[in-house]
Amino acid sequence: MSTDKEQLSEPMNRTLEIELIDELIALKSARGLFLEEDIGHAPVERYASDDQFDTELELVFRRRPHLAAHVSELAKPGDFLRVDLAGRPVLVTRGKDGVARAFLNVCRHRGAQLVGENAGCQNRFTCPYHAWTYASSGELISAPHFASGFPDADKTQFGLTAMPTYEALGFVWVVPSPDSSLGAPFDFKNYFAPIAAEVSELDLADHVQVANDRISVAANWKIIVEGGIEAYHFKIAHRDTIAPFFEDNLSSFRSLGAHMRSIIPRVSLARLGDSPRDGWRLRDHANTLYSLFPTAQFLVQQDHVVLIVANPLAADHTELRIATLVPKSEAGDSELWMRNHAITRTTLDEDFALGESIQRGLTSGANAKLTFGRFEGALTAFNQSVADTIAAVS
Prior knowledge:
By secondary structure, the protein is an alpha+beta fold. 28% of the residues lie in helices and 28% in strands. It contains ten helices and 20 strands. The strands form five sheets. A seven-stranded antiparallel β-sheet has the order 13-19-18-17-16-15-14. Strands 6-3-4-5-10 form a five-stranded antiparallel β-sheet, with no helix packed on it. Strands 2-12-11 form a three-stranded antiparallel β-sheet, with no helix packed on it. Helix 6 (221-228) crosses helix 9. Residues 1-11 have low confidence and may be disordered.
């Protein structure tokens, strides 16, 4: 287990920010689109097959970091959360030493679920079956009649089963597999390095959650991700909500390792060309979506960030966490932020309804494969990241 509360690297530099704005202004001026050389395809089985989902469960979800908690949810020693990650029950704790750790929420005696509460603050956890008791750092502290009942057992071998855990970017990240099953310590820092510079700049550790919803969507997790990384649907799917504020089918993206940065400009960005460059700020004129592979997304808006975290449950079922994060210094106006959160939910619900519609149509026989236009290259890149991850460990 490891922790890193410091900024991982330098933030997005000013030169890059101006380049990204210039790129989109040039496309708008030329009435052009952000195009790949070729169209892309994805077989429908990729979204509907139980076998495909089982492969992703074992080789993607259980071998890559998941966002388990915002640091505010584990603010002090003794704080804990009970979460489900990749089909496994997980207990995330903040030890007396201040270190965040994650364990399988399973007693090492007879396998009972150790903790039933969703969250709380305590330094010891006692199994409700036979009262085996563990420290927040995972060690078995006591067990009734242990010496007489287990005379040859070494109590130190009965600690909770640990999983790789890392604290960075304002969150606690967990790879939901026992340390021993991965073969080597997970290199979190290297994994996040391609995107850490820009996400660090958001200073999400200094934010608070003003709203936090959990919803269930009857769609494959990849369909949900794909709905957020292209702008082709905006003018149609969101015509009664946010469409008037955004350009028609204009966006850009970059793959950053397995992760991705997607930018969807507002109509105001086109007017920046007439203003001094030193006043340009991307966040004022575009939504930026950072997708941290495989299941966490940060939707960066002008004055707040929306967190979208997927917990894939089946080929056609995904649980989502949607939270609005705002700077601590701005959190007082709760009415304002709840209005913003409601707008976000309304827009995302439009996407989720379409995702469920797509899922229902996958097995109809209408399509053997889905087709991605040249301006939907982000979808091809995302699916390639999934394929590459599976290939790397299979």
